[in-house]
Q: What sequence folds into this?
């Protein structure tokens, strides 16, 4: 049986169970975006049914950018509400602090492209490193992330992000 993303549609909207990795190296954080979006997100993707969240974040980094990472600790539990096409999306996302397993495998000085499959369609993603001190100059989803990233708590934090339609 092929793995199935925990992503489904109902009449009211879309439900998404996502994991994300926060990879910080040399004062920079790795972010991703689709080429048609100005905003960035943390690398990751949808967990498969029956897969642990930590296992999903390791798999996503290996599949999308070909690197081996280790989840260091769970940082945040996010309840994100935003438009997904014409429907509202209710997303639960677990954000892990991650580190390279072994030698760092991604140069910090350039961006690169990768492909992902979402709901059977190929999507091109751009991955790029951003100085932590310059995050105020770009849009990062969820919006709470920039502030939280600059002041990482020793405890797991939970937040709710609601993006109004049309934003």
A:
């Amino acid at each position: 049986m092929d793995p199935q993303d925990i992503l489904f549609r109902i009449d009211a909207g879309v439900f998404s169970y996502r994991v994300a990795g926060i990879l910080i190296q040399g004062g920079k954080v790795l972010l991703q975006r689709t080429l048609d979006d100005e905003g960035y997100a943390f690398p990751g993707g949808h967990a498969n049914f029956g897969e642990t969240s930590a296992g999903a974040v390791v798999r996503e980094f290996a599949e999308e950018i070909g690197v081996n990472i280790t989840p260091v600790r769970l940082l945040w539990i996010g309840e994100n509400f935003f438009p997904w096409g014409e429907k509202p999306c209710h997303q639960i996302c677990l954000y892990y602090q991650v580190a390279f397993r072994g030698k760092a495998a991604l140069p910090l000085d350039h961006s690169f492209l990768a492909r992902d499959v979402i709901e059977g369609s190929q999507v091109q993603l751009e991955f790029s490193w951003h100085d932590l001190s310059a995050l105020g100059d770009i849009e990062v989803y969820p919006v709470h992330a920039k502030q939280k990233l600059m002041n990482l708590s020793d405890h797991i934090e939970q937040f709710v992000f609601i993006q109004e339609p049309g934003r």
Q: What stands out?
A: Residues 53-65 form the longest helix (13 residues). The chain has one domain: 7-162. The domain at 7-162 is CATH 3.90.79.10 (Nucleoside Triphosphate Pyrophosphohydrolase).
